[in-house]
Predict the structure.
Amino acid sequence: MENLTRQEISINLEVMDMLNEQIAKEQRASSLYLAMASWCDQRTLVNSASFFYKQAEEEREHMMKIFKFINDTGGSAYSPVVSDLAHEFSSLREVFETALGHEITISQSIYKIVAKCRKVNDFGSENFLMWFVEEQLEEEETLKDILDMFDLSGDMPLQYIDERIPVGK
Amino acid sequence: MDLIFSSTYYTSYQSTTERCYYIDFGHKTVKVSFCQLLSLRYKAKQMSSIEYIDNLLNKYNDTVLLTLCDNQHLILLDTLMVLDFIDFIKGTFTMIELNAELVS
């Protein structure tokens, strides 16, 4: 029997499933950062709010990149549903700690897909995901630097810390 | 047409000349593209969740309306048919993958 499927889809089906799960994770991250931006905005933490608005946009861009990749390679991308998001945080530090925890989860998820790509010889998807591997390292580093600044700032007022949050990244 | 997989209620075929697939639902045979087959795979995946099956077995709705090919077809499935449909889709894609391994 001729391999009709290979002519229709260029990526492995299990990898496609994992990428669809990744779409949901990226969208969830985007929504979570939006909730964080709102929390910061309500407390006039201008730079932190700006940081999370930008992060929310970036996560959505990641989601769209994967979404488009699946459809372009002949697969089916599915629009994700996001529910049960936390909108309350006890401190600005907790906001950034939650963000770092989320980025680490996203990175691990990307690594799992890369490992799967290697296992099933899906080199096209692996190559596509390399950009995400690099991006995740940068995202984690940015958040770790901010948390280091919290440690160095000791008991300084929140406004002092907020002024030092890198705007837009 | 080449037989791909057959379960208790359903059978799938590949038509290389027409570059499409056929699914025999018993009372009717439906022509599906690969994208539509992927869509059925997604539906079967959703149906195989514990919540979905629990809802099917323990709540009031023991039948499911399955829409196919951009709502061109409507199929009514009872609980046994749903469970068989999940196995059928899994079996169909397993055979497609096995075939891909054999011809590569």
The helical segments of chain A are 4-8, 13-42, 46-72, 92-119, 123-153, 158-163. Chain A touches chain B at residues 1-9, 13, 17, 74-76, 78 (CB under 8 Å). Residues 123-153 of chain A form the longest helix (31 residues). Chain A has one domain: 12-163.
